[in-house]
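Board notes, transcribed. Complex of a protein with calcium ion.
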Amino acid sequence: MEVHNRYQTALILLLFYVLWLGRGDSAITVQQAEHLKSRIERLKSKVDAVNLKMAQTAGTLNNMAETGLPEMPEFNIAEGKTAFQTSTQGYHTPATGQQYPGDARLAVDGNTNGIHWENSCIHTKGEANPAWWVDLGQSYMIKRVEIYNRMDCCSERLNPFNIHIGSSSTVTSNPKCGGDHQIDVNQPSISVSCQGMTGRYVGVRLPGSRTLTLCEVQVFSTSDVAVQSAPISSNTPAPETCGLSTFIHVPQSDCAGSRIDIAAHGGVTLQFCADACCADPTCLSFQHNAQSTCYLKNKLCSAGEKGYAGGGNMYDRQDVAVQSAPAPAPTPAPGVNVAQGKTAFQTSTSGYWIPVTGEVFSGEAHLAVDGNTNGDHGANSCTHTNGEGNDAWWVDLGRSYVINSVVIFNRMDCCSERLNPFNIHIGDSDQVIANPKCGGDHQIDLSQPSISVSCQGMTGRYVGVRLVGSSRAMSLCEVQVFSNS
Ligand SMILES: [Ca+2]
Ligand SMILES: [Ca+2]
């Protein structure tokens, strides 16, 4: 614009100069006239060029006003990252020898093909709340998540699904991106905007008893910063060094249990089973049996946990076996019981005495911190309330402590079921039930004299136990509160 005006001004001044030269009877030479003419033409062509440029700029601005700003570049930050799923269901076609492992990495292999038999889709077992997730290596600002569905059959299995994004490796405890999503089952993929969410873990979960299949999950961010600095998860085995020779053969044994079986593959070779365990960072051992069935396991079972299995063999991952088999991880010191002998309270007290013997069973609050864990109410070391509704007992530790755990000794001569369920409250308010809960509803095993509840990280001067509901008398034979400080 400024350029345009400058040339216009120059042109006008030049015209005045020509008029001034031509005033009165003084004449300009032919040479001077030619020179001026060429200067005027050069200036005119410059003005034309500026006008053209301005017209083009105006056109671009008009287009932008109609179509919006140009798209920011986006990067799929999930491809090739480490992926997990709650279980794996693989298939084998004996006639052709083809194997379809269905393992978690197939949803980040860069192949969006929706035909399961093209070997690029994951597959869980039918189970409660199946989930798949990827560890991006570090936290990213997420823009959107694109999910490619299975298309050769069963595309309706995906609906409805949830997406979770956050920093917890327990991926389904992370916030949801939106609510229940529905894919159009005729479309190969769905793009879900998760603008504004941040996280290292991105997961897909099917609520309910279902089977999860995903052919690709792309996670888009407007920044691919992790390319330079993504830390490699420390428990990820180096794939090039993993193979059958990595495992220790434990003949005719199995440690069975659906909770430790993270994947099952039917009709597969021993080498396939070893490779599948290598490919899954959570796999520490596997069983391969006489029916050519392979079970991947998420732990290394101790000799005591391993049972005899006539048709099967366990294979334990060697490097882990060397490190962790000889001794279990040391348990941290429980700390000191800071409750014993402190002042205790309860919402009511129900005592009784036996006239024949003259014995008194006071049931008072201090009996839960008298240092005697005897669960027999007749030994006079247990508390007893009236059952007036929401009965509670609490101890004043005298000052605030960082709590490790609370151990509760139940009544054992009768009525041990009365304790379930119970809540623990810890905090600095003497209105003890206004303090935060340690966990939710706890259940003690009725065959056990005590339960230890970890309250790691909680701090408080008052520790209470409460039975929610009416007509529930509370009897506690001892409450120990462990702390290091
Ligand atoms: Ca894929
Ligand atoms: Ca006691």
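The two ends are 74 Å apart (CA to CA). The pocket of calcium ion (ligand 1) is lined by residues 106-107, 109, 111, 120, 215-216 (CB under 6 Å).
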